[in-house]
Amino acid sequence: MIVHTRSSASRSETTVTQTVVAAVSDAEDCDLLALPPLWDVIDSEAMDVLFAPTRTATPRSGRLEFQYAGYAVDVEIDTDSTVTVSVEALADGDGSIETR
C-alpha cells in the first residue's frame, strides 16, 4: 500500500488530485504523465472542492473511494484537515486486493 498525506500547512501547494496521481505514480513506479487521465474515472475538480477547507474554517471530515489505473484509491480527510491518500493494487479479476 502506498500512502501520501497532505497536512493543512501544505494544502495550498498541492491539490488532492495531484496527491492521488502522485500516489498511483509511486505505486506503479512510473512517470505521472504515463498514467491515464484521472478525469476519466472521477470529476477531479469536484474532488478538490470536496476536500478543500470550508469558508468558515469549520473542520471537515469524510472519505471517498474509487478505482483508478488498476488501483483502489481511498481519500480521507480528518477533523484536523489532514488529507490521506492510500492506494492498493487491484488483483486480476477475483475481486481481492493485492498489496504492493
Automatic annotation (TrEMBL):
The lineage of its organism: Archaea, Methanobacteriati, Methanobacteriota, Stenosarchaea group, Halobacteria. InterPro entries: HalOD1 (IPR040624). It holds the Pfam family HalOD1. It comes from the Archaea. This is Halobacterial output domain-containing protein. Residues 13-85 form the Halobacterial output domain.
